[in-house]
Specification:
The structure is a homodimer of 308-residue chains. With 308 residues, chain A is an alpha/beta fold. Chain A has one domain (3-163, 231-300): UDP-N-acetylmuramoyl-L-alanine:D-glutamate ligase. Chain A is built from eleven helices and 13 strands. Chain A has helices spanning 28-36, 54-61, 125-132, 147-152, 154-160, 171-178, 183-191, 232-247, 252-269, 283-297, 302-305, and strands at 3-6, 10-16, 19-26, 42-48, 70-72, 78-84, 91-97, 117-120, 140-144, 166-170, 197-201, 207-211, 214-218. The longest helix of chain A has 18 residues, at 252-269.
Chain lengths: 308, 308
């Protein structure tokens, strides 16, 4: 089943202690779509400026990612410039220019309105609700959010939350949204705000999943080097949603496996700057690391001991 | 099979933002022995002063923990006074008095010299080696260490490491010992120093295990409240070694399950101050939380889907 994702397509400039990249393709919808496409068809709803480069359009086209709703407007594409600290869990925004993204209010195409899987990437909650209202009867609606909306658009966010099957949120945002420092309390408090499940992203410490069926904890895939954490959360969401769409349903078991695939694909994206690594990624590499991840977290070490 | 543990028995004063406890029983050997005793017989090798209270001796005796080598000397028992930050991963030592622990150089009893499982808690590496040299042919030797010895007793520590089956070490100490910030690099570098396996303790983020068979990552059991992190690492080591001793052997599969039991029992000890919680703990509670932990980390959600 196919997925519709609404969010940003951007040009990112990223600096770290070990290098950087300028004007690279980024934006939540880009990371999400390329990750999800390993699992299911994806339709991108976004806006870019007249400066959007053909080779970047090509990255979507050659993967058969539907960009009929990648709107082009006069002006410049959304730009973000960030600088990571030595501790890569921290970053500063050096510059941010919404450009053509300002005033973005997409109307879905008729076939997008009957999609089964909808991902509302990190945009204003009012806009997320606007898009959601156009979809007839989605099977799974997931959304991301950020500190800015939690602090400044809380009523709109509160209205959206009960409509979600899955909310993805990072640890600091979960604390901000819930007012609870402890992540178990925070996750449960957010669950009580309406979403059927909450995925708390903890960066290098993995993901904590909260649902009515209980908690699920996965570590991140341990890496020797993280080059650029940008887009890890959106890549995680893309692979996770992709797996759900490929299965055509959402239950606790499918969600857990989706979270593992999300973790696995996200572990690749941070190995290089921007989309470099996942645009080179093969299904065989995903499959191999998925097996390594199962082995990594298998408390019974069943590779050596079980029959299966 | 039985375990010998060598380490401190102390009186701890602990302060947190939410309360504290004064002159409570503590010390690595106390936490270790009480946790290990759920799984196997334990013999404690330590020293206390003339102020050591009968009710604390009773805590060991009533569990049938062997304290023939809990030496008594004139003077005061080791005292530690710590204060935790709001972020409980950080603490300051307010005061520390070795007292009778100074000059501690134990001679094992004849039956202790033939023990199969030996745990060298966090004491000077020279002293750890001295104890180890008295044991004939141990099956499993594990040790803990700390920043102080890494910084000041490195040659003695380097001589000890190749003799260890298991080294337990926290994340900051692993970075200090290896000179690597990245924990995967740090774990592998320490493995190259000689121990057959390295368990990197990451507090609320769980444990990363390194061995020649590969890596194993477990999250901590997510708790709504942590009252006092003191002794969590020693409790982890106690339950882990206890499980190994109960199984009578060490292989990758047994070690992984031991790490999970260590994680589970450690999750209880931090729920209250000092030894309050694990001295009240029952096997049924451990078993219940072990099952909850397997469920928590089961990416296939097999409770509902598997045959086993």
């Amino acid at each position: 089943m196919s997925i519709v994702v609404v969010g940003s397509v951007a040009y990112d400039t990223v600096e770290t202690d070990h290098g950087g990249v300028a004007e690279a393709l980024g934006g939540a919808a880009s990371y999400f779509a390329i990750a999800a496409r390993f699992f299911a068809p994806v339709s991108v709803v976004a806006v870019v400026g007249s400066d959007f480069r053909p080779e970047h359009e090509q990255l979507f086209v050659e993967r058969n990612i539907d960009i009929r709703s990648l709107e082009r407007r006069d002006g410049e594409t959304f730009r973000w410039h960030g600088r990571y600290h030595e501790d890569m869990n921290k970053r500063d925004t050096v510059a941010l220019a919404l450009n053509v993204f300002q005033g973005f209010k997409p109307n879905l195409l008729p076939d997008q309105r009957t999609c089964d899987f909808l991902f509302l990437a990190n945009i204003a909650p009012e806009l997320q609700s606007w898009v959601l209202s156009q979809v007839k009867s989605p099977k799974v609606v997931a959304a991301d959010t950020m500190d800015h909306w939690i602090a400044n658009e809380r009523p709109a966010l509160d209205r959206l939350l009960p409509k979600l099957d899955v909310l993805t949120i990072n640890d600091e945002e979960a604390r901000l949204l819930s007012g609870e420092h402890n992540l178990v309390k925070a996750g449960r408090a957010i669950l009580a705000m309406g979403p059927k499940s909450v995925l708390v992203k903890r960066g290098e410490y993995g993901v904590l999943q909260f649902s009515r069926q209980g908690m699920f904890a996965v570590p991140a895939y341990p890496l020797e080097e993280v080059v650029d954490p940008t887009g890890a959360g959106d890549t995680f969401a893309g692979a996770m949603m992709g797996f759900l769409a490929r299965n055509g349903r959402l239950n606790e078991s499918v969600l857990r496996t989706g979270v593992v695939y999300g973790t696995v694909v996200a572990s690749f994206v941070v190995e290089r700057f921007s989309l470099e690594r996942i645009t080179q990624l093969t299904w065989e590499e995903i499959d191999q690391r998925y097996r390594a991840f199962i082995e990594l977290t298998d408390s019974h070490h069943s590779r050596w001991t079980s029959q299966s």
